[in-house]
């Protein structure tokens, strides 16, 4: 079978305003929020790295070395899933590039990137090919995708795995007789108990081909159109849950200020924010930024991303732990007479716990702050309770969560110590705590 996803080998010429190359991660970012993708790939606004990303990078490197050489260099996270891995060997395709010959293509644009693992050991006997992506996550039970999601290109995990499957279908000579694709997410838990789990979607080749043609190809055409926008405000934004996903959108400050005045509800909320708590942040630099994937019409000069104080990197230690302590400045940048910040200048949050020893003022409950922010969002949305906003409200269909999180980030509590109790029993408290964590200097969580 020669699938229709086997497109021409040569990519398009480089023209201003036209996408030069794509990646599966770009598809996922655009699917989550087209404007966030525009900030990242068209305006080339840099993003800060996170501790979770570092853990994933190290884990992927360990797994790659093990699968290629057989040498056991697995850390505690990756080792939990060793029993789910195939026997190492030279016939496994590890870190397989997508831009080989022929490359993965959509809309005439070539893809770059790598597939973690391709196992063709059952291809000759069963016509089956297994494609695996390693996922390091804080909680397997709550964060793992389902098999149905892995097979559906309308979902984030499915968009990735269908893309990898489409690459395999384009490799007719390499994988003759390919009939079935096993699309696998292999999860490794990074908090608490060391766990691993495999989720596999087994689908016929025709299913992947259809998903790519009917869902991904149209999305790429939309991305081409968005790449030619003159301003970020001309690109649609997916307000709501995506704003707070993965620790919060790194482009939130730019999306809410400047030329982007596209959502009246957000404008109302920002106008209510105190002038004493502006969205001010430190510039973040990248050591070696990659060449732009998109050449915008006016080629804007990249500007530093604005972000909340950096969260401490995750380590291979069980929860709970302190998070959110700001990065120390380099010695050459520290004034010789600099004094440590007094406790009263810090923001400390105790989540579902109360300190037994208090050095300073007694922590106050976060409840009154939550009530205040809820009232402001409800008033801006014209409802009494955001949780019961109707379909005709700007807060309907769960969009109140993103609006409440945005309002909290725009108007932080005053410096001091706060206690948030009963978080799991209050949707409002959950949203506020998740929104505030990156902005607090210290966050302490109680055992559950």
From TrEMBL:
Q: What is this protein called?
A: Conserved domain protein
Source organism lineage?
Bacteria, Pseudomonadati, Myxococcota, Myxococcia, Myxococcales
**Composition skew (Pro residues), residue ranges:** 290-303
Q: Where is this region: Disordered?
A: 289-343
Give start and end of each PD-(D/E)XK endonuclease-like domain: 21-68, 108-255
Superkingdom of origin organism:
Bacteria
Q: Which Pfam families match?
A: PDDEXK_1
